[in-house]
Amino acid sequence: IENIWNLIKTGANWENWLPILTGSTVDGNIRYCDMDGGEQLEELFLSNEAEKTFIYSIEKQNVLPAKNLVGLIRLEKVDHETTTLNWSLDLEVESLEIFESLQEQISGIYIASAARLAVLGTDTVAA
How many other C-beta atoms can be found within 10 angstroms of the C-beta atom of residue 22? Predict the structure, then answer.
């Protein structure tokens, strides 16, 4: 859990495990993210070490047809070898059709990200 939490908690270098990012910088509790095609996101975030929880609010974005995006990532230790990653995103969209399209797209991103975190977390242990 500590290895994976260290990859998440500062908001920095998420491009190493979040496939939609090509770069990011952090200034205090604001993260600026670069994406393919030159798009950018600006996020306000809060990291809670004790609860292994990272909350972010996407303040500016032109990527998704949605607004008021708030995400939550929480890690929970199951046993000495297993960590559960809970990742949710609340957002507002104009229609059920848009929601269903985004749900599939975002689920794919989360699955790829979780797989990469698992590899990086294990690699950190082995190093």
Answer: 14
Q: Dump the DSSP string for 19-82.
A: TTEEEEEEETTEEEEEEGGG-EEEEEEEEETTTTEEEEEEEE-SSSS-EEEEEEEEEEE-SSS-
Q: Report CA-CA distances (Å) from 49 to 6, 63, 70, 74, 82.
A: 10, 30, 19, 10, 18
- 49-105 pLDDT tens trace: 999 999 999 989 888 899 999 999 999 999 988 899 999 999 999 999 999 999 999
Give CA–CA dist 10/48, Å, rounded. Answer: 10
The residue to which tokens 């990272």 are assigned: 54
CB 19 within 8 A of CB 110: no
The residues, any chain, with a CB within 8 Å of residue 28's CB and separated by 6 or more, are: none
- Model confidence, pTM: 0.90
Q: 109: which 2 tokens?
A: 């991103």
Show the CA angle centred on residue 57, arms to residues 53 and 61, nearest 5°. Answer: 140
